[in-house]
Amino acid sequence: MDLSPYLSFNGQCEEAFKFYEKCLGGKTVFMMTWGDSPMAAEAPPGWGKKIMHATFKLGDTTMAGADMPSEQKPHGFSVALGLSDAKEADRIFKTMAEKGTVKVPIQETFWALRFGEVVDQFGTPWLINCEKPQTSPPEGGSKIVAKESK
Inter-axis angle of helices 86-97 and 13-24, to 10 degrees? Predict the structure, then answer.
């Protein structure tokens, strides 16, 4: 079983996925417009070139999205991105924040070399997390193990 985020856009899906390719280094492996789909006749007026479905791959992870005829703002979720390199976490956060909104500045925390929250220019909320390497447990505590994300 796989669990993958599906992002809704208000006419910016293609632009957003191109941005994610540049920022994250993944690849858009599928993109279909409303006009090229079997549902072309049902597309809202002027939506022929908008994206009906797109699929983005980053390592073993898949994210999908589409332009939705009615504006749907993301509620109650964030896309969590786990990294093993603090410099890469800083780079991605800075790129996402350029035209976005920083909710929590990227910084070191008790669990992470870097952690920050940002809403990108397309309205998608992101959690950027670069966990600290494995550490010795505190006196009487449990061992903390950081798992590398792909």
Answer: 150
Enumerate the H helices of 27-129 as residue ranges: 86-97
Instruction: Using alpha carbons, select from 112, 111, 116, 146 the residue that is nearest to residue 128.
Output: 116
Domain ranges of the chain: 1-69, 77-150
pLDDT in tens, 19-41: 999 999 999 999 999 999 998 98
Task: Specify the fold of 1-69.
Answer: 3.30.720
What is the CATH code of the structural domain delimited by 77-150?
Answer: 3.10.180.10
Whole-angstrom distance, CA of residue 146 vs CA of residue 100 = 29
Rg, Å, the chain Cα set: 18
The two beta strands, 27-33 and 51-58, are antiparallel
Tokens 């966990």, located at residue: 131
* pTM attached to this predicted model: 0.80
